[in-house]
Automatic annotation (TrEMBL):
Subcellular location field: Cell inner membrane
Assembly and binders: NDH-1 is composed of 13 different subunits. Subunits NuoB, CD, E, F, and G constitute the peripheral sector of the complex.
Cited NCBIfam families: PRK06075.1
Protein known as: NADH-quinone oxidoreductase subunit C/D
Organism name: Alloprevotella rava F0323
Keywords: Cell membrane, Membrane, Multifunctional enzyme, NAD
Homology family: In the C-terminal section; belongs to the complex I 49 kDa subunit family.
One Pfam family named in its UniProt record: Complex1_30kDa
Catalyzed reactions: a quinone + NADH + 5 H(+)(in) = a quinol + NAD(+) + 4 H(+)(out)
GO cellular component, one term: plasma membrane
Length: 557
């Protein structure tokens, strides 16, 4: 090494350390805005619960028990989240109730406040084993009476405890009611469902006019219906349990397979819930496309309602008229996304395909043809004296009854209850269009029929306003390869073909939901059959059944 190089190295070693350049202060973290659909259930103690729920119903006018979601929070315990809604004021309330006793979980009933709680609480008992104190009928409603365990619990060993059974299920004619005594002990009382003296007729589960595998046990007094006990669960596929192991995009396919006549609407609700919770924005184009497709789906559903009601009542020609018109909608669906019944169209962040070049033309051609079809429905069936005699004044539900039983959609609005989500809580493009909420006050089978016919007219009016005003833009927002929803609890709902379809989502921040529960449109409807059919003729049961218009896979999730 030269003398010059050596002096340079010595100088570098003896020089003071360089002062680091000043760094720019880091920007303060911007807190994420709370999701629009995030809910914060209020914890209530077991001792205070019933009194508080009574106050909410009477003082806060919470006329609707929207949903009861059973949950297993593991270390925290078992319990429920209650969705309450005042359809008069629009206010919502969410209550959380938990018990830490996993061996003997007891919670107070609210079936004495809202009739719909009778079947909601039985659903929670069936899948989580929670027994509701004061509930008059703690039988399983979906699973076999001899089922072992509670499959929605996180630690349940379903397959090990339940080998394939080849024996017929024995149906229970008695049930147990649990009540807490002043000394804290639990008193068990046996209640009778049907007595040996009851004359029983079984309708279903293989009956064409139950529109699916559904079993009604019907007690008769002569030809008059004395009581109906619905037995569900013959089509059970465990969709809500499967969702706990699926990623969010994977959960979408299952919604189409519940209410297959409201496939786009159900999937719209799930996508909307995930998008709002995860902060994913969709374009105006997507919002309008979803609105048009939802209304086409509503017309499709109401046509099939009309057709099947006609078939149930022996009017085969009218049945064929309906299927002729429905085919036009299915052709539009098929050209748009390849599906006719199972649509698979809505995706997280948008839709799977942009509109077909022929979409607007075919929809605009469909509208006048459908209006002509509706006129023919009146001529061939609705104004027919036989149909009127069999439907008018039959299967009446009052305004108070439909609120108490959560009967939403056209069936609830036929009894004067204003509950249309599109009006009460607008979503997608419903705040950009004008339409009427179809409401009648008679509450009978004929009013339920007319409501759906009028709703088809309103759907055509909505589509007319949008079909030439579809905005430009992307049909799919780019999302992360793996979608995770922030920790929290979320609820969103849409107006399905049969009423309110809701999505309750609880996330722990993972790529799969911790709990994903659906507010079925059909479960309240089938639950209302007992009230609607009491003291009616057995010959009128299928007309009442048809005008309530449930879809069985939507009931049995």
């Amino acid at each position: 090494m030269s003398e010059l190089e050596e002096k340079k190295i010595q100088a570098q070693q003896s020089a003071p350390a360089a002062t680091p350049a000043a760094t720019r202060p880091a920007a303060a973290a911007v807190p994420a805005a709370p999701a629009e659909n995030e809910i914060h259930p209020r914890m209530v103690t077991i001792d205070e619960f019933h009194k508080e729920m009574e106050r909410l119903k009477n003082e806060e006018k919470m006329d609707m028990l929207e949903l009861i979601t059973g949950e297993d929070w593991q270390e925290e315990g078992l319990g429920c989240v209650y969705n309450l809604w005042s359809t008069d004021t629009g206010k919502r309330e969410y209550i959380k109730l938990v018990t830490t006793d996993r061996e003997n979980p007891f919670l107070p009933t609210v079936s004495d406040l809202w009739e719909i709680a009778n079947i909601y609480e039985r659903e929670v008992f069936d899948f989580y084993g929670v027994k509701f104190l004061g509930h008059p009928d703690m039988r399983r409603v979906f699973l076999r009476e001899d089922w072992e365990g509670y499959p929605m619990r996180k630690d349940d060993e379903t397959e090990q405890n339940n080998p394939l059974r080849m024996t017929n299920e024995v149906l229970a004619d008695t049930t147990t009611q649990y009540d807490r005594m002043p000394d804290g002990s639990i008193k068990e009382t046996t209640n009778v469902v049907f007595t040996p003296e009851d004359y029983m007729v079984n309708i279903g589960p293989q009956h064409p006019s139950t529109h699916g595998v559904l079993h009604f046990r019907v007690a008769l007094e002569g030809e008059r219906i004395k009581k109906i006990d619905p037995k569900l669960g013959y089509i059970h596929r465990g969709i809500e349990k499967l969702n706990e192991a699926y990623t969010y995009p994977q959960t979408l396919a299952l919604t189409d397979r519940m209410d297959y006549l409201g496939a786009t609407q159900s999937r719209h609700a799930l996508c909307m819930t995930i998008e709002k919770a995860a902060g994913i924005e969709v374009s105006d184009r997507v919002q309008v496309i979803r609105t048009i497709m939802d209304e086409l789906q509503r017309i499709d559903s109401h046509i099939l309602f009309f057709s099947c009601l006609c078939q149930d009542m022996g009017a085969t020609s009218a049945f064929l008229y309906g299927f002729r018109d429905r085919e036009m909608i299915l052709d539009i669906f098929e050209e748009t996304c390849g599906g006719r019944l199972i649509i698979n169209y809505n995706m997280i962040g948008g839709v799977s395909h942009d509109l077909h070049p022929n979409f607007q033309k075919r929809v605009k051609e469909f509208i006048p043809k459908m209006r002509q079809g509706i006129k023919e429905y009146y001529d061939i069936f609705i104004n027919n004296v036989i149909a009127r005699n069999r439907l008018i004044g039959v299967g009446v539900l009052t305004n108070e009854q439909v609120r108490n039983m959560g009967v939403t959609g056209p069936s609830g609005r036929a009894s004067g209850w204003h509950n249309d989500i599109r009006k009460r809580q607008p979503y997608a493009a419903y705040d950009k269009v004008e339409f009427n909420e179809v409401v009648r006050t008679e509450g009978d089978s004929y009013a339920r029929l007319l409501n759906r016919i009028d709703e088809m007219e309103e759907s055509l009016h909505i589509i007319e306003q949008l079909i030439d005003n579809i905005p430009e833009g992307t049909f799919q927002t780019k999302t992360k390869p793996i979608i995770k929803v922030p920790t929290g609890t979320y609820y969103s709902c849409v107006e399905g073909s049969r009423g309110e379809f809701g999505v309750f989502l609880e996330s722990k921040g993972d790529k799969s939901p911790f709990r994903l529960h659906y507010r079925s449109t059909g479960l309240p409807l089938v639950n209302a059959m007992d009230v609607a059919c009491r003291n009616e003729l057995i010959a009128d049961m299928m007309a009442i059944n048809g005008t309530l218009d449930y879809v069985v896979p939507d009931i049995d999730r």
